[in-house]
Amino acid sequence: MGGAAAAAGLAWGHFEAGWVRLETLRCRLPGLPPELEGLRIAHLSDFHLGFPSRASAAIDRAVDWVEARQPDLTLISGDLLSRRAGEERLRCLLARLPRCFAVLGNHDFALTRDPFSHPIELYDLEPATLLADDSRTLELRGKKVQIVGVDPRSYRYRRSHPERAADPDADLRILLCHFPNVVDRLPAGAFHLVLSGHLHAGQICVPWPGGRLRLASLQWTYVRGLYRRPAATLHLSAGLGTTFVPFRFLARPEATELVLESE
After folding, report:
1. Which domains occur in the chain, in start order?
2. How many CB atoms lie within 10 A of CB 221?
3. What is the Cα–Cα distance from 80 to 76, expressed in whole angstroms?
4. Whole-number Å distance between alpha carbons of 105 and 180
5. Against a cut of 0.90, is the pTM above it?
6. Higher pLDDT, 222 or 217
7. Nearest to 241, CA basis, from 14, 19, 59
8. Beta bridge partners of 143
9. What is the C-alpha separation between 239 and 166, in angstroms, rounded?
């Protein structure tokens, strides 16, 4: 009986790793100019390419979905590769995503206890733009939109101060950082929107009274979804890939389109 239950659990975890949620969320931002009302931002995270997993199916479907929807921006919040074997595929996928900006995560540098992750040297992701403690400003709908990206190494060693790069004259300031707790390190009003990943919504969760126990994120304040904080509104993605084990349980992979609304 126990063996059958374990086999069923493994089979479900294998299935769920590829069962992607494609979700559109309305995201209300204080002070958003009327011209940017309805701006659409696709948020993807945690591909972990290069290690075999059914997450590959989730990533393919997510990229197909974003490419078909043609959002105003595509923003990716790190952990793109687990092994160099995934680099060619990563570049092919990113080339299909409109107006794409990305940061790296700790797994891209093998700053993890995961024995299957290997350090990768990525210096560019053209035609996508890779941000590492720098920023880009573009014009959308006649308004100035700034995207600031955090390098995971400087964040890890507390050398990162993204608020110093924030342009007070930008009509919309977006921060890309792999780690969601960055939102608690920022001064009030530093950014309008922060996009993060890292936690995979727990990846392996078990039913618990009143909800679920997220084994990979027991001590984290944020898990997935939208959070309003003094520094900014945080969107934390459950991500698309897997790490340590090629399974998910009660933590489906996801791709999200945020539709901005003024408040």
Report:
1. 14-262 (3.60.21.10)
2. 13
3. 9
4. 12
5. yes
6. 222
7. 59
8. 140
9. 26
